[in-house]
Amino acid sequence: MNPESPSPSQTGKWMMAAAWIVGLLLLTQLFGMWEDHQRNPNQTLEIVSGEDGREELVLQRNRFGHYLFTGKINGQEVEFLVDTGATVVAVPASMASSLNLPELGSTRVQTANGSSRATRTVIDQLQLGPFTLREVHATILPGMDDQEVLLGMSALRYLSFTQQGNQLILRSE
Q: Which CATH code is given to the segment(s) 46-172?
């Protein structure tokens, strides 16, 4: 045996260590996917046909009691947080330019954190599962959480919605 080559027991130890590292990486990835699903259980949208034949979007409540789902603004995927208490759709300032949102002037808004300055805008196309809304009034808010767009009443007014247990059902008017 060559004194410079590793012994079989050393090779086995390295193989075992590599297997543990790969296993831990896979577990970390699986946990991350599970955690993301807990935050947004509606990554794959459930679209059903209602009693009257119209399409309905069925959203599951997340573990925090919110309805979060993936939709599109101007063709780009975003996560929406349904907020029936918001007058208009609210977009984080960090997202606005990548979503091609025009700045149409300044306004003051009342948020849960008090009064704030915002920028008025109009969303050309807002897609919520099977529903496509056009020219939806919105605001661009600085300092807002970068992960989610608040889906306020300026969009929700075009839909009817009912809550049943842990589900929110949206349908066209």
A: 2.40.70.10
